[in-house]
Amino acid sequence: MLGANFLPNGVNLEALLKTLRHLSWGAADILRAYARAEQPPYGFPKALQVEDGGDGPVSAADLAVNQWLMEGFESYFPSADWKLLSEETAKEQLVEGESLKSDWLWILDPLDGTKDFLQGTGEYAVHLALVSGHEPLLGVVLLPELQELWFGVMGVGSWCEDREGNKTPTRLSQRNTFSELILIASRNHRDERLENLIENLGFGGSKSVGSVGCKVATILRGETDLYLSLSGKSAPKDWDMAAPEAVLKAAGGMFTHADGRPLQYNTGDVRQKGCLIASNGKNHLELCEKALQQINIIDPGFKV
């Protein structure tokens, strides 16, 4: 079990996990309803189409799940010594260059993979991460369409649950040579530099999916071995990476910058810029070293 220093006073891990299950499956029901243009549960309104004066299903789903999660945390843990930061509330909460003053911070993404949600691929996710000292200590990645709820607790481990609470352990692959490694890449966020990097590293194969949570889940199932993110005009944000990182690291994988630096959260800049590498951990340092060499050729001066 986690030590007392991992959670605020008065917060019990098992009670917290029970609440996270309830909030996560509720979020799944809300998102699946919006994705199918059905009446969502818990009193949330159906999405109005843009031509009818609404913002469309993505905005409606984002806002509904955000409200569900924020109100849920406040209801179940009214006295907990933590703050909540959501992608939907960040503009109101954050001041550039200033971190939020709290020993514990929940970083929430109500809908990661909005393009995939809109395109109907099903490759979207919900991310919940508890961060302390700029590091995610507990993560939840919900994949509504696959009915998978991934948990990662540092010092305890990672696992997947279905709606009945049946648990499946993570299965990181044992592949460890570059010619065998399977890359999981972004479908919607890739440019020529990333294509060149992937080609030059000489992996055994690649797959493409949407949400970062969906990508990391393929590593946790042993279907793939690594994920690369190379920022360009935009960069992933704290809420994209924190929960997937927590689940992967608790399973024994690794998630760092290409120079080996750890990712950090709540630093005053929510952008996770540079070259980020997530892997099954088998040859992570060698992978970082080779990626760094190639980036220096492809884009000299790029800050990894």
What is the general shape?
A: globular
- Please estimate the helix content: 25-40%
Classify the oligomer: single chain
Q: Just give the CATH class of the largest domain.
A: Alpha Beta
CATH superfamily of the largest domain: Fructose-1,6-Bisphosphatase, subunit A, domain 1
How many helical stretches?
8
Based on CA atoms alone, the radius of gyration comes out at 19 Å
Task: Give the structural class.
Answer: alpha+beta
Strand order of the largest sheet: 1-2-3-4-5-6-7
The count of β-strands is 12
Described by strand count, sense and barrel closure, the largest sheet is:
7 strands, mixed
Distance between the termini: 35 Å
Q: What is the CATH topology descriptor of the largest domain?
A: Fructose-1,6-Bisphosphatase, Chain A, domain 1
Reported CATH architecture of the largest domain: 2-Layer Sandwich
Helices and strands, in N-to-C order? HHEHEHEEEEEEHEHEHEEH
Mean pLDDT: 91
**Poorly predicted regions:** 50-56
What's the number of domains?
2
The percentage of residues in β strands lies in 15-25%
Can you tag this structure with a few keywords?
33% helix, Fructose-1,6-Bisphosphatase, Chain A, domain 1, alpha+beta, seven-stranded mixed sheet, 8 helices, five-stranded mixed sheet, single chain, D-Maltodextrin-Binding Protein, domain 2, 304 residues
